[in-house]
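Hi team,

Filling in the usual template for the complex we talked about on Friday. All components are listed, including any nucleic acid strands or ligand strings, so the model treats them as one assembly.

SUBMITTER: L.P.
PURPOSE: interface mapping
COMPONENTS: two
RESIDUES: 570
SEQUENCES:
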Amino acid sequence: MTNVLLQYATVLVLSAFVGTEIISKVPSILHTPLMSGSNAIHGVILVGAMLILGAANTNLEEVLGFLACILATLNVVGGFVVTDRMLEMFKGRKPKAPVSKSDEVTP
Amino acid sequence: MSRETLIDLIYLFSATTFVLALKGLGSPRHARRGNALAAFGMLVAVVATFFKFVDGHALRHVGLILLAMFIGTVVAVPVARFVKMTAMPQLVAIFNGVGGGAASLVSITEFIHIKSTHPATYVVLEVLLGVLIGTVSFAGSAIAFAKLQELMTGRPVTYPGQQIINALVGAVALGLIVTILVSGSTALLWTLFGVAFILGVAFVLPIGGADVPVLISLLNAFTGLAVAASGFTLGSNLLIVAGILVGASGILLTRLMSKAMGRSLSNVLFSAFGSNVTASAGGGVEGRTVRSGTPEDVGVLLSYASKVVIIPGYGLAVAQGQHVLRELAEVLESRGIKVFYAIHPVAGRMPGHMNVLLAEANVPYEDLIEMDEANSELQTADVALVVGANDTVNPAAGEPGSPIYGMPIIHADLAENVVFMKRSMRPGFAGIDNELLYNPKTILVFGDAKDTLTKLVAVVKAS
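RESULT (copied from the run log):
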């Protein structure tokens, strides 16, 4: 095993622990935004898609890279927008002051 | 500082924002800011990537990249903005699927690229895992989408020898991976892609509608893992961190969900739950009486209550009754009656779905209580109002031999009175009869949940 691989493996293992630790604290009322938010985060594959399209030498690589870029953009943009829309709706009763102005107009 | 180091530092920043975003989801108040932060981190990472060198030259095809991003954005934004909240599970499924597809394509292209630039064949396992997992996630999400969108039946699709066939397809995929590792054949890589696609479809077909929430969560984890595999291939810490964060969260959530249904994950995935219970569903129904009531009866009951626990289910969302329900709760609260909404972890069509649907109707999240708290509140409640829920309040979960045995439920029957709003006597998703309907405490109100609630609001207001 090369040193580089070992370094990646280290990052992988530590991230897995961080992920498990943080997510176990998310309350169940936020599980849907959690899914959709983490969904947006794996949209980071867009960075990978850019790199392969940016390195493409042949037509086949270009076509595949282009498709990958479109799919990844759908994932990342759609994911963040939908999560934001969901979280916007979670309003408590106490922090009414900052948001209530526009709310009270609507029936 | 060299350009590459700077870009790597920026990636580190982005990875940090992802962690903080997930941490922000620990409370409803910080969640939105966290999400915005992650989106910013993502944007920064993407911009930085434009300045990266690959194979010793600057990024090529920048125009094509921008075009692809433009197309993706133009399609994704309106869809994400305007799809109804009840359709959220299928939307998450499809966004997850395209992510898996992208990860798979990245791995395939990288394989082809390495083969053309470094002919001294250098094939590694992570490329193949990326293709396998990414494609399974893509195909599986597509089928899950079709099931949720009702483009196909939500019932488990089964055929003779299904498990054996699926196991064979899986074995073929593994065999292909070994063969490619040895031979480095590109043609076989495409075969692996095809087989993984079939595997994804075959894996999801036997999973019934009620179990799809667990499935989506698992597929989300798959895409995360596929992204991490691509990270290994491309040598990107950012992809590894983000992919594993998602993989860990997806797996954890999947386990929580199956626990909330009182079943093991393998039972959820491989038992085709709900395919054969319909035959026994009618048994024992004949000759038993239920007490049915009118909205007026219930209105009187509610007016005299001091604590009401509402137990909403997906039926409420289907009837679009969330807003009227909130109106009812507000009228009750204005008379000093305590109102809680008891949310079962698997109410709705994805984890936490019911919370989102109620939030959409402006129900304050402080009024939403989780199952355990609900069960202790119910002991002192005057009325349990079951609206559009069924399996999640079914006492059969306590009877050995029942298909839902062991599933933790909300014990509506602890309350003084139970009001059950239902369209008909039909059983719920699990396909089994509900004892609670025959309980002497229970008043059944038949009809569309929204209509009934509207009448109920009028009655309570008038009294």
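MY TAKE: The beta strands of chain B are 53-54, 57-58, 307-312, 338-343, 368-370, 383-387, 417-422, 442-446. Chain B has three domains: 1-82, 86-276, 287-462.

Thanks, L.
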